[in-house]
C-alpha cells in the first residue's frame, strides 16, 4: 500500500468514526425533538456538539447547528428547564406558556428511548450478520510470572482455575465471567482462587494479592493483575519487516505458524532459537491463514541495518492461546442484556471503595473515537462496530436516565417533584443548578478525555533498533 493510499484509508476511517458518533448523538436528540414537536413545545435550537456553532441554519423558527466542542449535543427546549448559559438563547423574550409535568417527562424520556431503539436496531442487524465470539476458552494457566502475586500464592503452570471469589469462571477472557475480567473487577485486599491441579483429586483453594502497573499522572491507573497467562496453543506472527525474507515469502501479520521444518512450536522463545540455529539454511514454514494451510520456503538474510545483525527472517513471533473467533448470532435481547450487565458491573466497581475501578477508567469522546477507530481496523471490523453501537447506545440510554440535573433523568425527577408539590421549580435557582451541573459534566468529560489522550503516550518498551532490508 502506497503512502497516499494509507493516508486516504486513515482519513476514511476518521470520517466513518465521526459520522457514527454524530449518528448516535443525532438519534438521541431526535427523540427529544420529535417529542417536543408532538407536545407543542417551543424549540429554539437543535445542535450536535456543544459550544458556539461552527455551522448553523434556521428553518421554521428552529436553529440547526454543529458546535465546536465534540462532547454530545442538545435540543434547546426553554419550557423544559432554563439553560441559556450553556445552550444560548434569548433571555429577554416574553415568558413562554408553562407545560405540564407529563409533557416534560415525555420529552425527557424520548431521548433515552430513541437511544435504546437504536441499540435494538443495531442488535437486530448483529443477530442477522453475526459477530466474532472473541473468547479464550481455556482456564488452564500456561505461565506464572516470577515473583508475581500468583507465584507467591502457590499457583503453578497447569493449574485450572474454576472459581474466583466463590464464583464459577468461564474461559480466560472474553466475558464478564472470565478469569481476566474477574480479577480486574474484583474488590477487597485479596482474591480467592479455586484451582484444579493435575494429580490431586480435590480442588486447591489459594489466596492471592494483586499488583497494579504504575502509570504516569496523565495516564489511567493500571488494572489489577496477579501475574498469570493462559496456556499457549499457537505460535502467531506479530509483525513482518518490509522487504524481509519473511515478507517476500508471503508471511503476514496474524498468520499462525503450524511448524518449522516439520517441528511444532508453541513457545515463541524456542521458535526464535530454532530459527537462529538454522543460519542461512532454508526453513520450510507451514502457515495457517483463514482456516487454510500452506507451506512457504524462507531463507534468513542479513539486513542492511544494523550492519552487525545476524541473519534473520524479519518476523516477530508470540505465543498465544486459542481464541475462538467464530461468528455467532446472539439474539437482540441477549445483546442488550449483556450490555446492561456490563454497565451495572462497571457502576458497582466505581462506587465500591475496595475496588480499583475509578472515574479515570471511563472514556470520553476521544476514547470512544479511538475505540471505534481501532475496531474498524480489526478483522470483521464492520461487525465489531455494530456490536459497539449496541453497547454504547445502551450505556447512553441508561446514563441519561440517572436522576442528575441536566441529564434526562434529572428532568424527569424535577417534573415528578413538580407534580407532587403542585408548583414548578423556581426558574432562577433551577437555571443556576442546571448550569453548575452542566459545567461539572463537561469537566468530567475533559478529565476522562485527558486520560484518553495521556494513555497514548509513555507506554511500551523503548524502541528496538531499526531493521532495514534491501528492497
Describe the structure.
With 471 residues, the chain is of the alpha+beta class. It folds into three domains: 261 residues, no CATH class; 97 residues, PDZ domain (Pdz3 Domain, Roll), CATH 2.30.42.10; 87 residues, PDZ domain (Pdz3 Domain, Roll). It is built from twelve helices and 19 strands. A four-stranded mixed β-sheet has the order 2-3-1-4, with helices on one face. Helix 3 packs antiparallel against helix 10. The longest helix is centred in the first third of the chain and has 36 residues. The radius of gyration is 27 Å and the shape is globular.
Compact description:
With 471 residues, the protein is an alpha+beta fold. The protein has three domains: 16-134 and 330-471, no CATH class; 135-231, Pdz3 Domain; 234-320, Pdz3 Domain (Roll).
- State the distance separating the first and last CA atoms: 15 Å
**Number of separate structural domains:** 3
What structural category arises from helix and sheet content? alpha+beta
Number of beta strands: 19
Low-confidence stretches: 460-464
Question: Which outline best applies?
Answer: globular
What summary fits the major beta sheet?
4 strands, mixed
| Count of alpha/pi helices | 12
Relative strand content: 15-25%
The strand line-up of the biggest sheet is 2-3-1-4
Helix content: 40-55%
Radius of gyration: 27 Å
pLDDT averaged residue by residue:
89
Amino acid at each position: 500500500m502506497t503512502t497516499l493510499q494509507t493516508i486516504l484509508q486513515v482519513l476514511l476511517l476518521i470520517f466513518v468514526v465521526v459520522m457514527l458518533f454524530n449518528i448516535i448523538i443525532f438519534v438521541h436528540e431526535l427523540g427529544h425533538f420529535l417529542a417536543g414537536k408532538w407536545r407543542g413545545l417551543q424549540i429554539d435550537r437543535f445542535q450536535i456538539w456543544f459550544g458556539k456553532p461552527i455551522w448553523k441554519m434556521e428553518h421554521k423558527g428552529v436553529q440547526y447547528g454543529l458546535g465546536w466542542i465534540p462532547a454530545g449535543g442538545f435540543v434547546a427546549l426553554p419550557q423544559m428547564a432554563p439553560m441559556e448559559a450553556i445552550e444560548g438563547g434569548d433571555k429577554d423574550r416574553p415568558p413562554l406558556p408553562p407545560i405540564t409535568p407529563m409533557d416534560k417527562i415525555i420529552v425527557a424520556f424520548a431521548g433515552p428511548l430513541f437511544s435504546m431503539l437504536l441499540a435494538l436496531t443495531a442488535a437486530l442487524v448483529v443477530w442477522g450478520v453475526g459477530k466474532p465470539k472473541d473468547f479464550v476458552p481455556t482456564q488452564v494457566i500456561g505461565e506464572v510470572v516470577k515473583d508475581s502475586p500468583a507465584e507467591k500464592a502457590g499457583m503453578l503452570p497447569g493449574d485450572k482455575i474454576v472459581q474466583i471469589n466463590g464464583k464459577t469462571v468461564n474461559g480466560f477472557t472474553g466475558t464478564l465471567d472470565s478469569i481476566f475480567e474477574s480479577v480486574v473487577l474484583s474488590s477487597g485486599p485479596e482474591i480467592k482462587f479455586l484451582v484444579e491441579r493435575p494429580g490431586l483429586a480435590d480442588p486447591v483453594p489459594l489466596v492471592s494479592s494483586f499488583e497494579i502497573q504504575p502509570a504516569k499522572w496523565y495516564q489511567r491507573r493500571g488494572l489489577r493483575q496477579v501475574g498469570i497467562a493462559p496456556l499457549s496453543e499457537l505460535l502467531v506472527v506479530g509483525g513482518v519487516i518490509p522487504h524481509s525474507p519473511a515478507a517476500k515469502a508471503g508471511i503476514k501479520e496474524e498468520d499462525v505458524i503450524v511448524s518449522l521444518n516439520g517441528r511444532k512450536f508453541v513457545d515463541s522463545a524456542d521458535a526464535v532459537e530454532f530459527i537462529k540455529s538454522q543460519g542461512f539454511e532454508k526453513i520450510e514454514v507451514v502457515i495457517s491463514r483463514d482456516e487454510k494451510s500452506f507451506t512457504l520456503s524462507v531463507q534468513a538474510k542479513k539486513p542492511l541495518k544494523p550492519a552487525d545483525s545476524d541473519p534473520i527472517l524479519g518476523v516477530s513471533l508470540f505465543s498465544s492461546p486459542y481464541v475462538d473467533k467464530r461468528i455467532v448470532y446472539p439474539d437482540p435481547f441477549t445483546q442488550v442484556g449483556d450490555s446492561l450487565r456490563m454497565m451495572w458491573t462497571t457502576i458497582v466497581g466505581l462506587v465500591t471503595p475496595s475496588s480499583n475501578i475509578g472515574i479515570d477508567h471511563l472514556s470520553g469522546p476521544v476514547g470512544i473515537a479511538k475505540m471505534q477507530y481501532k475496531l474498524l481496523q480489526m478483522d470483521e471490523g464492520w461487525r465489531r462496530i455494530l456490536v459497539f453501537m449496541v453497547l454504547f447506545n445502551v450505556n447512553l440510554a441508561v446514563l441519561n436516565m440517572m436522576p442528575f440535573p441536566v441529564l434526562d433523568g434529572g428532568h424527569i425527577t424535577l417534573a415528578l417533584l413538580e407534580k407532587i408539590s403542585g408548583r414548578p421549580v423556581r426558574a432562577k435557582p433551577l437555571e443556576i443548578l442546571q448550569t453548575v451541573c452542566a459545567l461539572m459534566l463537561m469537566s468530567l468529560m475533559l478529565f476522562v478525555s485527558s486520560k484518553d489522550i495521556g494513555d497514548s503516550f509513555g507506554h511500551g518498551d523503548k524502541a528496538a533498533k531499526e531493521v532495514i532490508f534491501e528492497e
